[in-house]
Design brief:
The protein has 245 residues and is an alpha/beta fold. Helix content is 31%, strand content 26%. Strands 1, 2, 3, 4, 5, 6, 7, 8, 9, 10 and 11 form an 11-stranded mixed beta sheet that branches. Strands 12-13 form a two-stranded antiparallel ribbon. The radius of gyration is 17 Å and the shape is globular. The two termini are 15 Å apart.
């Protein structure tokens, strides 16, 4: 069985990694999940938001019994030093809903002693505006924000598994993402409804184009790190040696 489970929110975040992998569909809690499989790794895009991340984490644990859970995907920068495409390996994931902090397994690895590893990721339950990013940085001392990692961390803790977060920056601190939270339904993005909304607001087109372009770059960098680091056992020491894909 695969030793590593990668849980992302959207298929595009992991597509550069899994595009040539075989896949299968498994139903869990009334939701169908597409699991992409390699000999040592399984990857799934479980949906957007904390509840979707919880369901996907439980689905992959029940069906694959991995040793390591990795919350992978794009994130927003909370500090000006992080630029689009930068990839971080947070030492701590913080749940802004209750203030709980979840350490990752990066601490004892070489990357844990770098600026990439000495970071805190805040999990926030909606798409953060610039004002919300500034407040998250001030309140929690966090460096980046996502929506799902805290729930993946909880699942790993519940099942006594190692946990990592690998996040690539898709939007910088001062980049204002158009309103998207209301288009997220049951963990899925309502693309058609958003397109209709966007069609009547041409002043948003450039911003959405930039976000899409930046997300592609972030996803490519994310998957390069996953392929060359996580999947070759150069992140987490102490596990059985894994072979490069």
């Amino acid at each position: 069985m695969p030793k590593i489970a990668i849980i992302a929110a959207m298929e595009g975040e992991i597509r550069p990694l899994v595009k040539s992998w075989p896949s299968k569909i498994i139903r869990h809690e009334r939701f169908d999940y597409t699991f992409h499989e390699s000999p040592i790794t399984v990857a799934v895009a479980g949906g957007i938001g904390p509840e979707a991340a919880r369901r996907a984490a439980e689905a992959v644990i029940i069906n694959y019994y991995p040793e390591i859970l990795i919350s992978a995907g794009v994130a927003g920068a909370l500090v000006p030093e992080l630029q689009v495409g930068d990839t971080i390996f947070p030492a701590t994931v913080l749940d802004t809903r209750d203030g709980s902090r979840h350490p990752t397994a990066i601490g004892n690895a070489p990357l844990g002693n770098t600026s990439l590893g000495r970071t805190t990721l805040a999990s926030y339950p909606e798409v953060a505006s610039v004002a919300q990013k500034l407040q998250l940085a001030k309140s929690y001392g966090a460096h980046a924000v996502d929506m799902e990692a805290a729930e993946v961390a909880r699942a790993a803790q519940k099942h006594n598994l190692q946990f990592l977060a690998v996040k690539a920056i898709s939007d910088e601190l001062n980049f204002e993402i158009p309103e998207m939270s209301r288009f997220i339904r049951n963990g899925q993005f309502a693309t058609a409804a958003f397109a209709a909304h966007l069609a009547l607001r041409p002043w948003l087109w450039l911003r959405v184009f930039r976000l899409a372009r930046n997300t592609v770059l972030a996803s490519e960098n994310l998957c390069a790190w996953l392929r060359d680091s996580a999947l070759t056992n150069t992140i987490v020491p102490g596990t059985q040696k894994l072979h490069q894909l």
